[in-house]
Design a protein that fits this description.
Elements: H1 9-36, H2 42-69, E1 71-73, E2 78-80, H3 101-119, H4 129-152, H5 172-190, H6 206-225, H7 233-261, H8 266-280, H9 289-313, H10 321-335, H11 342-352, H12 358-390, H13 397-402, H14 404-409
Antiparallel strand pairs: 1-2
Amino acid sequence: MAASPETDSGTTAWMLTATTLVLLMVPGLAMFYGGLVRTKNVLGTMMHSFAAMVVIGVLWPTIGYALSFGSGILGGLVGWNPDYVLLNGIDESIMDSGIPEYVFAMFQGKFAIIAPALIAGAFAERVSFRGYVVFIALWSIAVYSPICHWVWAEDGFLFNMGPAGAIDFAGGTVVHISSGVSALVAALFLGARRGYPDNVMHPNNLVMTLIGAGLLWVGWFGFNAGSAVASDLDTGRALTVTQIAAAAGASAWMLIEAVLYKKATSLGVVSGILAGLVAITPAAGVVQPGGAIIIGAVASLFCFLAIQVKNKAGYDDSLDAFGIHGVGGIVGALVLTFFIRESWMADAAVAAGGSWTVWQQFGIQAAAVGVTIVYAAVMSVILLFLVEKIVGFRLGETQEMSGLDHSLHGEQGYGLINPN
């Protein structure tokens, strides 16, 4: 009988730290989004992020981990392992990487938390709290867990597509494309905020948004480097390109604004940071620093253009959840193909029987992106319809005009009232 793996204290310590860093991203997201809405909606918007921590924090250990990392059922649509229900079967489990499986389950659980929280940016300022809670619970089960299983479970079909699978090191498809596409669908389904786009809806606190962006940047080192599930060369590589891509994305956005507007805005800088971070997420394990610079810059350009398209088209993705996370995730998942390190391609060629080209891998990446987009969009429409009909999702006019803070929570974020 093979001996059970022993706990590697160094790797375990790093993964505990990475898990904490990823959780830190959620209050960071709350601050980022909270600063961008109007005064009357700041608490209600921040509550969306905290509600995700609460709701998914219970749902993930109950059944989410089993659905995501259990053996495939229903033709591989989703996973299932009854031993993972309430994590009962992993109480003494040490993984081959030398970490307790509890740590891996909690690390992955933070990804499951932030994904639905990202969606909230698309329909900020106009949805009921009850509808939001029901929606994210259903979305986590019906959208997030299946996609997570396809990409990251050992028997997932995207994990096994081609000689080395669809590349998604830390969640380009699983987190950002799935949430970004669902966000766009939700924004279109629910319609625009009352008064949009005729009334100017200024952010209430860009200082808070900048602090939130800073917390996201710091937390992203756990998000990406932690996805190596190790403390080794790959961890260092992922951390390095994460830093570089974020800086490149911000630099590119500043340059775009300098050319077009003769000034660099704080909101533009943080938008560029996030574009670079999102785009490098799927690529962090396979690209080198030069590729990270290009990926970050290209993502900024495409995210900037996506926001201009939104403004022209007139749909109300309130805080650009699709424009940054959806578009950035798509760009990263596709563009990474052209910057994969040679050693990775050599290993893929061996696994393929002697030959594997960039364009063949691009086909795999495009298939993963396409499947994720279609599945997330279709399922989101179904879930949005069900939630709207059963518990209600879109706020009535009186509640929306009063603001989320007062009408839904009976509170005010500041000692001020913004009538707009």
